[in-house]
TrEMBL record, chain A:
<feature type="active site">
    <location>
        <position position="123"/>
    </location>
</feature>
<dbReference type="InterPro" id="IPR013751">
    <property type="entry name" value="ACP_syn_III_N"/>
</dbReference>
<dbReference type="Pfam" id="PF08541">
    <property type="entry name" value="ACP_syn_III_C"/>
</dbReference>
<feature type="domain" description="Beta-ketoacyl-[acyl-carrier-protein] synthase III N-terminal">
    <location>
        <begin position="117"/>
        <end position="194"/>
    </location>
</feature>
<dbReference type="InterPro" id="IPR013747">
    <property type="entry name" value="ACP_syn_III_C"/>
</dbReference>
<dbReference type="GO" id="GO:0005737">
    <property type="term" value="C:cytoplasm"/>
</dbReference>
<comment type="subunit">
    <text>Homodimer.</text>
</comment>
<dbReference type="Pfam" id="PF08545">
    <property type="entry name" value="ACP_syn_III"/>
</dbReference>
<keyword id="KW-0443">Lipid metabolism</keyword>
Automatic annotation (TrEMBL), chain B:
<dbReference type="GO" id="GO:0009245">
    <property type="term" value="P:lipid A biosynthetic process"/>
</dbReference>
<dbReference type="GO" id="GO:0005829">
    <property type="term" value="C:cytosol"/>
</dbReference>
<dbReference type="InterPro" id="IPR003231">
    <property type="entry name" value="ACP"/>
</dbReference>
<keyword id="KW-0276">Fatty acid metabolism</keyword>
<dbReference type="GO" id="GO:0000035">
    <property type="term" value="F:acyl binding"/>
</dbReference>
<keyword id="KW-0443">Lipid metabolism</keyword>
<comment type="pathway">
    <text>Lipid metabolism; fatty acid biosynthesis.</text>
</comment>
<dbReference type="Pfam" id="PF00550">
    <property type="entry name" value="PP-binding"/>
</dbReference>
<keyword id="KW-0275">Fatty acid biosynthesis</keyword>
Length: 334, 82
C-alpha cells in the first residue's frame, strides 16, 4: 500500500471573534486640502460624501496603526496574542519589499511564532484576508487568525492631485477569525481584472525613482470615471453573488458595509441590490475618508460601537480597488 | 432591434430624469449635460451605463468626454447600433 501523508483538519465553521479599530488622530477638513486642488468643501461633499478624513502624524507608521487595531481585536475576541497562529496584514502603504509588515506586527503584539505574511490587494485587502482566514481555520491550517487592514495613505498622496488623493485617510482595522459552532463567514466571491490595472496606480515604480530621481516620490492616481463605472455597476453583481453563495437575500441581512470609496458608489450599491431601508449601511467615509484596506473593518467597528449594528447581525461586506481586484462575503458580526 | 433617433432621445430623457429628478421633457437635444442639466461626471457615467443597457450599445469610457450635448449622445448611440 502506498504511504499516504496526513492532512490537517479543522472545525466545520469559522467566525469573526472580535474587531479592533485605529484611526489617524488628525481630523482634516475639506477646506484644509481644497486649495492645492482648486476645489471646495461643497464640491468634495457633493461628489464624494466626504466631510473630513483622518490622517496620522508623520512619525506614525502603518505598523503602529496595525498594532493598535490588532491589540484591540485580540482583546475583543477574548483571547491572548499567544493564541494567534497566523497574522495577515493587508496594506499597500508599507514601503519595504521585505521583511513583511505582518512579521513586525506579530512580534510587537506578542504573537510570535505565528505565521505572518502581507497581502497586497488594495481596497479589497481586508475581504481577501477574511476569505483566507476562513479557509485557514476550517482547513486546520490555523486555529486563530488575525487579519489587519492597515494603511498610511497620507504617505502616498500628492496634495495637488485631483483624481484620488483628497479622498484618502489613515487607519487600521483588525479582526480575529477563529473556530465556531455555527457558520460565521460565508463563501468569498473574489476575483480580478488586470486589464484595468492602469485605472488605479502609482505614478511610477521604485525602479523608476532610482533611475530617474527627478521624478520624485511616487503617488497615487486614478481614472475616476472608469473606476466609478466598474465599482458602481459591476461590483453590485459580485455582492449579489456573495449573498447567493451564503444562501441569503437582501431581505435577510441587517448590515451592509462596502469599501468606503465614495458615497455615490455606496448609494448605487443600495439601488442595484435593492437593499431595504431596514439594512444599516456603513457610511464611515463621511468622517474618516477612504482608508483602502482599513475601510471595511473601521466602518463595521463604528456601526457596532454606535449601536447601529449588533452582535449576531448578518453583514454583507465587499472590498474592491486597485488591480483591479475585489472580494465579498457575508459574515456574522461579533 | 434598431431604435430611431426619436426613440433614443425619449429613452435617454427617461434615464436622465431618473438620475437627476429633472422632468424628462426638459431633456432636449441642444442641452449640454454639464452646463444646462448640471450633470457631473459621475452622474454622466451612471447615465451612460443605463443607456448602454437600454440600447444594447457600448459607449467607451474615453468617448464620454466627447458627448457634450444630449444630441451628441443620441447621435453616438444611433451610430453604435449594430
Amino acid at each position: 500500500m502506498t504511504l499516504q501523508i496526513k492532512q490537517s483538519t479543522g472545525p466545520e465553521f469559522s467566525r469573526i471573534l472580535g474587531l479592533g479599530a485605529a484611526r489617524g488622530t488628525n481630523v482634516v477638513t475639506n477646506d484644509d486640502i481644497a486649495g492645492p486642488i482648486d476645489s471646495s468643501d461643497e464640491w468634495i461633499q457633493q461628489r464624494t460624501g466626504i466631510i473630513t478624513r483622518r490622517r496620522s502624524d508623520a512619525h506614525v507608521t502603518v505598523i503602529d496603526l496595525a498594532e493598535e487595531a490588532a491589540l484591540k481585536a485580540i482583546a475583543a475576541a477574548g483571547i491572548t496574542a499567544q493564541e494567534i497562529d497566523a497574522v495577515i496584514l493587508s496594506t499597500v502603504t508599507y514601503f519595504h519589499q521585505t521583511p513583511a509588515g505582518a512579521a513586525l506586527v506579530a512580534d510587537r503584539i506578542g504573537a510570535t511564532p505565528a505565521a505572518a505574511f502581507d497581502i497586497s490587494a488594495a481596497c479589497a485587502g481586508y475581504s481577501y484576508g477574511i476569505g483566507q482566514a476562513d479557509a485557514l481555520v476550517r482547513s486546520g491550517g490555523a486555529r486563530n487568525v488575525l487579519v489587519i487592514g492597515a494603511e498610511k495613505m497620507s504617505d502616498f498622496i500628492d496634495p495637488t492631485d485631483r483624481s484620488i488623493s483628497f479622498l484618502l485617510g489613515d487607519g487600521a482595522g483588525a479582526a480575529v477569525v477563529g473556530p465556531s459552532d455555527t457558520p460565521g463567514i460565508g463563501p468569498t466571491i473574489w476575483g480580478s481584472d488586470g486589464s484595468k490595472a492602469q485605472t488605479i496606480r502609482q505614478t511610477h515604480s521604485w525602479q523608476d525613482l532610482r533611475t530617474q530621481p527627478e521624478l520624485g516620490w511616487p503617488t497615487l492616481r486614478q481614472e475616476g470615471q472608469t473606476v466609478f463605472k466598474w465599482a458602481a455597476f459591476q461590483m453590485p453583481v459580485v455582492a449579489q453573488q456573495a449573498l447567493d453563495a451564503a444562501g441569503v437575500t437582501a431581505d435577510d441581512i441587517q448590515v451592509f458595509v462596502p469599501h468606503q470609496a465614495n458615497m455615490r458608489i455606496i448609494d448605487q450599491f443600495i439601488k442595484q441590490l435593492k437593499l431595504p431601508d431596514t439594512v444599516v449601511v456603513g457610511r464611515d467615509i463621511a468622517d474618516t475618508g477612504n482608508t483602502s484596506a482599513a475601510s471595511i473593518p473601521l466602518a463595521t467597528d463604528r456601526l457596532l460601537a454606535e449601536g447601529q449594528a449588533k452582535s449576531g447581525d448578518l453583514s454583507l461586506q465587499i472590498g474592491f480597488g486597485a488591480g483591479l481586484v475585489y472580494a465579498a462575503q457575508v459574515v456574522v458580526l461579533p | 432591434m434598431a431604435y430611431t433617433e426619436q426613440d433614443i432621445l425619449a429613452g435617454l430623457a427617461e434615464i436622465v430624469a431618473e438620475e437627476t429628478g429633472l422632468p424628462a421633457d426638459s431633456v432636449t437635444s441642444e442641452k449640454s449635460f454639464t452646463d444646462d442639466l448640471d450633470i457631473d461626471s459621475l452622474s454622466m457615467m451612471t447615465i451612460v451605463t443605463h443607456a448602454e443597457d437600454k440600447f444594447s450599445v457600448t459607449i467607451p469610457d474615453d468617448e464620454v468626454k466627447n458627448l457634450s450635448t444630449v444630441g451628441d449622445a443620441v447621435s453616438f448611440i444611433n451610430g453604435a447600433q449594430a
